[in-house]
Amino acid sequence: MNRTLNVIALNPRSRTPLHVQLADYLRQRLQAKAWPVNEPIPDEKALSKMAGVCHLTVRRSLKQLVVEGRIYKIRGKGTFVRDSQGEPAPHNPRVAYVGVCCGECPENTSAMRRAQGIIDYCSDHGVIPIRLAFHDSQSEHACIERNRRILSGLIVHGFPFCRREPDQWVYLGKLGIPVVVLGGCLDRAPRIGSVRPAEEEGAMEVVRYLRDRGHPKISFIASSLRRAEPRLIGYQEAVEKLGMESRIYHAKPMNSIQDQVEYGYRTVQALIERRKLPSAIFAQNDVTAVGVYLALREAGVRMPEEVELIGAGDDPEAWLLLQETPYPISTMALPHRQLGLETAKLLLARMRNPKLPPKDVVLSTSLVHRATTKG
Known about the structure:
Elements: H1 18-31, H2 44-51, H3 55-67, E1 71-74, E2 78-81, E3 96-102, H4 110-124, E4 127-133, H5 137-147, E5 151-157, H6 166-173, E6 179-182, E7 193-197, H7 199-212, E8 217-222, H8 229-241, E9 245-250, H9 257-273, E10 280-283, H10 286-298, E11 308-313, H11 316-322, E12 330-333, H12 336-352, E13 360-363, E14 366-368
Parallel strand pairs: 3-4, 3-5, 5-6, 6-7, 7-13, 8-9, 8-10, 10-11, 11-12
Antiparallel strand pairs: 1-2, 12-14
């Protein structure tokens, strides 16, 4: 039986957004086992009334908890509690479950946007996504095996996994269920479908734009060449075709967001000190671009008059770091939510018809002009 709540006290004057406050409250209630596993929690209308907020705020809070693997939705029936192992128990044979392999998906991140696309498409089609959280290939393998008996399909969510070892691709290809890689490469996994952004083509568009603006040299600044590979390839191809000089600055792979900001900042500081600052900079991602932007602004360099700067990703993480409104850095934007939607769409199509051959779906990027380009 569904247990009701009386009033959920939120603070509208707090700096913490209402949907985050509500998610925190529900998370605490779930941890306290206020509702049994596989029992419904109060619906959106009830939560809206209890918290005194609109249904869109409630929906956003619930999406975050779905991504965290604490609850799951069944279309037309409601929202239910998942067990502590991330597996709905007991297994309902009339419901299709899709595993989503991913790391952490904090609020206001590009990973969260992609996850929301997956969740929305699955929920609209009566499929329950199960988050399979892991830290490395061994724990990922264990998560898949633990849930394998109930899975009808699997999404490998996360761009770094294009770098899987050959035996990992073989393992995924032999699972016996449809698998789609978000950000994957079909040539490395011929039995697995993939959905990815056209990053090479997007990087080439950035270089062409900057060349057409009259910049003789365009520097590429990367805090991790491994993660920047498609963008780097596009940059190098465009520079070579246009007969321009390639200038690449890179460091050892950096996972920390703050380290990536620092690398962009220090690299530009050094270029300014050596009087080798280029008139155009293409940063590997928006986080690195934030460091570049801060160094240029600190040095009194006018953007876009003296230097044009373009990042990549259109990532919410960078907006939160800079905390400037409107966000000023131009970018090669990736369609994060659409990537999630198309990944789920491709997987469900293969679940309905296992004979469909794997395919590589490529989504276009877009050049978004803001205050750091002349546009």
